[in-house]
Amino acid sequence: MPLYEHVFLARQDLSQAQVDALAENATKIVEDNEGKVIKTETWGLRTLTYKIQKNRKAHFVMLDIEASGATIAELERQTRMNEDVIRYMTVRVDEHEKGPSVMMRKSDRPERSERGGFGGDRDRGDRGDRGAPRGDRPDRAPRAEQEA
Question: What segment(s) does the record annotate as region Disordered (predicted)?
Answer without folding.
Answer: 92-148
